[in-house]
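Entry:
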Amino acid sequence: VVGLIHSISFFITFAIDLSTFNYLFMYKKFILFVAFALSALSCFAQEPPIQRSADNVAFRDSIANFLKLEGYVPSIDEDGDIEFKKEGSTYFVIVVDDEAPFYVQFTYYLGMDEDTDQVAMLKAMNETNRDNRCIKCSIVDKDLLWITIESYDATVAEFGKTYDLYLEHLSESGVILAQAYNKYSKEKTNQSK
């Protein structure tokens, strides 16, 4: 009888220890699941908007007012950059630095199709960058590239002296880039024949 009681007490102790282990194991699994779920959800969190200094915002707003006086209808996009249209094309003015002189990007975005030959596009961009003053072409995403002109401006008057030239260069560069792309994509087609 004593041996039977001792065996029963051992099994009860073992069962209690096993249930405690299962509880701790389940608790650990739950904590890991919650940590994984929170980290997975964090990938959907939006990045906070760019914090701009008061000088940056004042300069940006002064450029927007200048563009209004020139007859454009500028607006501030969700990133805080100036967006305006000219002859159906959308341009952006991005003011980067917190104090003068401000690093200013005058940008024009172009879309790319799925069937765009990436090698031909890179060759065309290199040629456009090399052969044109002040122009920088970059692939931003798999279906988007930009043409930009960068400058440092301390005043809106400095920006105003060159903005017409910048607009002209940006629109011409889009045409030049397209022509260079056609040339390089035809070369590839001719080489494959």
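The CA atoms of residues 66 and 156 lie 8 Å apart.
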